[in-house]
Amino acid sequence: MIVKDEAANLPSCLASVREVVDEIVVLDTGSTDKTVAIAQQYGAQVYHFPWGNDFATARNEALKYVHGDWVLVLDADEVLVSEIIPYIKEVILGANNLVVNLLRYELGSDDAPYSEISRLFRRHPQLYFTHPYHASIDDSALELINQEPHWKIISIPLVAIRHTGYQPGVIAERQKFATAKALMESYLAIHPEDAYTQNKLGALYLQIGEHDRGIQLLQQALQAPNLQPSLVFEINYHLGNAYAKSRDTNQAAAYYQTALDQNVIPPIKLPVYHNLGILLLDGGDLETAKTAFEVVLKIDPNFAPGHYNLGATLKFMDDYEGAIACYRQAVNLQPDYPDAYQSLGVLLLLSGQIDASMQAFTQAIAIHQPHNPQEAKRLQQELASMGFVVGK
pLDDT value at position 392? Predict the structure, then answer.
């Protein structure tokens, strides 16, 4: 792992692997807190390297100090899930296994909670990281397999890594976006045909509101030859999101469907089914939307937004009982979900369950109050106009 000022996160990360791995290599890139001391307490070999705005360079430097046959890469705000350990021990025995893609779960993500990342791989002189941001060994692995076709890339379709640092503050998020944008733009200026960077940068442009620029770059990425299914999936998913945002539902649905046609594991497809369901719901295709949300919940029964949107679909289908059950499940899974409480309150009120309805509205108002006081006030006023005093 490479780290900088990760004293808060490092103990849980290293505790998750300390009894599993043969060695821990930590490359510190300029910490001023207790990161180094904590790493040493967990038995890590700590090395130092000046940060040069290039994640690939730093990760390759860390690789120089590895002695094991296999390499597991973690970030400090990640932990290894204990249940995955037997599967890891099994796959590294495969004589031709070169890279093992691991499933990462993003705690706190309401959009794309799963990602598949090549974080477990055989230590091989021809495996190294590329790309200064979103660094990975994928390019070098594919090049090696082209030379030596006996090597295999495999996946473990169970959650292996939990990412706990998904929700930074707004300022930190803006700084992260600015750093990522600068690094990827610089790399793309030198490698203008690199579809991987075009995809990542195009998605970032969409995130920061540069809509046309993002679409242009993503469509350019789709023209690259010999794209891997996972990259085709990502590009089409991002384009689907872009056109959904601009209300071009036909284009969005087409890109979503192309994404779903790719050979990737079901958890990765979850956000596509979910966003397609929202698109269909907004367009009034309730039966198909219902089916999409049911697929989402088959993939992950604990995905609260899936229950919420299935509830919204059932509400429009006049199945109030089913919708109420979905909203209740959404708030059980995610107790800080104000929209689910609010929708639950509406249906309980329409169903004549006044006390339960007011309890739900009270919860919605309390959750809105610190972050969205205008909505809390609007909801209070609307209820007051109906003769209900809530949230005082």
Answer: 59
The two tokens of residue 213 are 């620029």
The residue among 143, 103, 123 whose CA lies nearest residue 60 is 123
Q: How far apart are CA 159 and CA 302, in angstroms?
A: 13
Q: Rounded to an integer, what distance in angstroms lies between the CA atom of residue 166 and that of residue 9?
A: 13
Residue 134 DSSP one-character state = S
Name which of 228, 250, 229 is nearest 239 in CA terms. Answer: 250
What is the 3-state secondary structure of 67-120?
CCCEEECCCCCEEECHHHHHHHHHHCCCCCEEEEEEEEEECCCCCCCEEEEEEE
Residue 348's contacts (CB-CB under 8 Å, 6 or more residues apart) are: 324, 354, 356, 357, 360
Rounded CA-CA distance 179/133 in Å is 9
The residue whose two tokens read 């930074």 is 168
Overall residue count recorded for the chain in this entry: 392
**Cα–Cα distance, 284 to 319 (Å, whole number):** 15
Ranges of the chain whose pLDDT falls below 50 = 168, 170-171
What tokens appear for 2 in the block? Answer: 């490479």
Phi, psi of 103 (to 5 degrees): -90, 125
Distance CA 312, CA 286 (A): 10
Total-model pTM: 0.92
